[in-house]
Design brief:
Layout lengths: L5 H9 L5 H14 L5 E3 L2 H16 L10 E5 L26 H8 L3 E6 L33 H8 L5 E6 L5 H7 L2 E4 L19 E6 L2 H11 L29 E5 L9 H16 L3 E5 L7 H16 L18 H12 L2 H14 L4 H22 L5 E5 L15 H6 L5 H6 L3 E9 L7 E8 L5 H14 L11
Parallel strand pairs: 2-3, 7-8, 7-9
Antiparallel strand pairs: 1-3, 4-6, 5-6, 5-10, 9-11, 10-11
Helix pairs in contact: 2-3, 5-6, 7-15, 9-11, 9-12
Bound molecules: glutamine.
Length: 486
């Protein structure tokens, strides 16, 4: 039962062959037995109350395709009842008085919250090692990182601790962990999914999205997750869409852009091999590959690591020991209280970003760093528009390597930043992007570690991405593989 897709579980629930309560108990049990550290907070009583509500709805035939399906939320989305920590000591005891819009939407659809998923502190990281609650282990190889920042989400889906999860992507945090854990995830166009109640990291980049086993499941989740929210000032006002509407379109004649810059040196041979095999599969499905160029790819790293910290330093100023979270026990005066609370509450990576951010925004440096980065951001977006004149979607690797070992890059922030090379520019441009499982690589240590294929589309092309992913998943079974013992 636990390996079934959301779509399959939905059919069983509607046919009353399983109840929401039984499903929740099954997954809560699996979570309890797991040693991956994927969850930060679980509360059985709360979950079972929601499951009982869902069963009542099912009994009355008042359902949506998601009613009764368990879902776990990245601990960046605030939830009533469960703690909302953002993976930080700063918020380790914080309980929100309201639900994030996304959480609310899934509740309205009748989904059952399983608990809160581990992540890098304030979503800053690529390995989940920046969480105050400790790293998450990759279910495929417990010596390996799960990726980040949504490492808990990806590990939970891969280990079948939940059939669905939320995640957020600021510079790759849905796609990269999905890739390293062998699950499917989609980062929608910026503004599709409400940021209200999503603890802010870099507001012009942050975007929520779903993770699940399949593209079809992600489409069903996105149907509930996307939509205009007056409480988010950058939320897009667009008509409601069925993101699953094009799943069954054939790929005959599809033009796939292959960016030269994504296949250069720095791409590990085992990753390249799996990605190229996936591209060959697409050719069999009727697509043609087109050579394209995204010439500013390399600049996405310095640009992102100026803009994201700048916005983070501003967003995180609210954590002052007065209004939210941790307050130092001893202090001399107000200034001392601020300083000590922040020094104690934030981890190293968060402090590093606040320092960089405050620096690039400061008088005298603003033009040289922040403004310059904004200009290049525009050029990066333009690169994509030029590319989309030649192709329908763009494909390449998500991560230059498979998951690395826990600890390997823990003391080297720059090595972590460099690993984001293939995901950052999509975020800077605000485009939708996906990761789907497409094989396995060895890594350095002879482990069997998943490889993800990245699919990037133009603005609002989520239905197309899901179609392109779904057709591949009909033809291959990478997304159905599970780690040993699952
Ligand atoms: N790895 C990137 C960072 O550390 C992206 C994180 C994210 O998308 N939240 O900022």
């Amino acid at each position: 039962m636990h390996t079934k897709t959301l779509k399959e579980l939905s059919a069983l629930l509607q046919a009353k062959q399983v109840s929401a309560t039984e499903l929740s108990k099954l997954f809560l049990d699996r979570i309890k037995q797991s040693d991956l550290n994927a969850f930060i907070h679980v509360d059985e009583t709360l979950t079972l109350q929601q499951a009982a509500d869902a069963d009542a709805r099912i009994a009355k035939n008042d359902t949506t395709p998601l009613t009764g399906i368990p879902i776990a939320h990245k601990d960046i989305f605030v939830t009533r009842g469960w703690r909302s920590t953002a993976g930080s000591k700063m918020l380790s005891n914080y309980v929100s008085p309201f639900d994030a819009t996304v959480v609310d939407q899934f509740r309205t659809a009748g989904m059952v919250t399983l608990g809160k998923l581990n992540c890098d502190e304030f979503a800053m990281g690529s390995s989940n090692e920046n969480s105050f609650f400790g790293p998450v282990k990759n279910p495929w190889d417990k010596k390996a990182i799960p990726g980040g920042s949504s490492g808990g989400s990806a590990a939970a889906i891969a280990a079948r601790l939940a059939p669905a999860a939320t995640a957020t992507d600021t510079g790759g945090s849905i796609r990269q962990p999905a890739s390293l854990c062998g699950v499917t995830g989609i980062k929608p166009t910026y503004g599709r999914v409400s940021r209200f109640g999503m603890i802010a990291f870099a507001s012009s980049l942050d975007q929520g999205g779903p993770m699940a086993q399949t593209a079809e499941d992600c489409g069903l989740l996105l149907n509930a997750m996307a939509g205009f929210d007056p409480r988010d000032s950058t939320s897009l006002e667009r008509p409601t869409e069925d993101f699953t509407r094009d799943l069954n379109n054939k790929l005959q004649g599809l033009k796939i852009g292959i960016p030269r810059e994504y296949f250069g040196k720095g791409l590990a041979p085992d990753v390249e091999q799996a990605v190229r095999a996936a591209l060959a599969e697409y050719e069999k499905l009727g697509a043609t590959l087109v050579d394209i160029s995204l010439p500013k790819t390399e600049l996405s790293i310095p640009v992102y690591y100026v803009i994201a910290p700048a916005e983070a330093s501003s967003n995180l100023s609210r954590f002052d020991g007065v209004r939210y979270g941790h307050r130092a026990k001893e202090y001399k005066d107000l200034g001392d209280m601020y300083r000590k609370s922040r020094a104690e509450g934030f981890g190293d990576e968060v402090k590093r970003r606040i320092l960089v951010g405050a620096y690039v925004l400061s008088h005298g440096y603003y033009d040289a760093y922040y403004l310059q980065a904004q200009k290049i951001r525009r050029l990066i977006a333009q690169d994509f528009q030029n590319a989309f004149k030649q192709c329908d979607v763009i494909m390449g690797p998500v991560s230059p390597t498979v998951a690395w070992d826990l600890g390997d890059k823990a003391d080297d922030p720059v090595a972590n930043y460099l690993a984001d090379i293939f995901t950052l520019s999509t975020s800077l441009a605000g485009l939708p992007g996906m990761s789907i499982p497409c094989g396995f690589g060895q890594g350095d240590k002879n482990g069997k570690r998943p490889v993800g294929l990245q699919i990037i589309g133009n603005y609002f092309a989520e239905a197309k991405l899901l179609n392109v992913a779904h057709q591949y998943q009909l033809a291959t079974d990478w997304h159905q593989r599970t780690p040993e013992g699952i």
